[in-house]
Specification:
The chain has 203 residues and is α+β, with helices and mostly antiparallel strands. It is 43% helix and 27% strand. The strands form three sheets. A four-stranded antiparallel beta sheet has the order 2-6-4-5. Strands 1-7-3 form a three-stranded antiparallel beta sheet. A three-stranded antiparallel beta sheet has the order 8-10-9.
Amino acid sequence: MTLTSYPFIEKLEPEALDFLQAHLKPIKIPKNNLLFYQGDVCNNILWLTKGEVRLYTQSDEIGEITLYTLQAGEQCIVNTASLLSQTEAIASAETITDIEGYLIDVESVKTLAKLSDVYQSYLFSLYQLRFSTLTNLINDIKFKRLDERILEWLQKQNSNIIETTHEHIATELGSSRVVISRLLKELEQKEKLMLHRGRIELL
């Protein structure tokens, strides 16, 4: 079991750790695969140890918008909430790289939560972290100009040259490709960036 990216594992009670080791199922999934759809009821939780997963929601009104990305050592709040309450997931999950990790079924999760105060505390902290992320997203959409959000998104990619498409940025920010293209051109005219085929250079 390689769950060292989850800090709370070291603090798990011995009985809970033994139970966890006995009930985790290792998985490997290639990139560009859907793990679950918006509206599904999840019966397993993914514990991600390698790779990245995108959580997104879609509707006729706003199209598709990314809620957050899941990294190794993080557990998905949409996945967890759907499993624990046995209600429909409010978003879809897609692998954006090849991933590795473990699955644990609904009954095992409930038993683990009963066995371990440490795991219960982790679940509560998970809700707080993700709700904070989603609150920030809502505030950005409501109060920030879209050109500001585009620049912030580009700056978060940790490179001055970002390989991406206007369509991808539109999906990430919940807008349309036409609007994103127009604003990118305006930002280029303001010398904030340079547009190239398939990539954007921050200045």
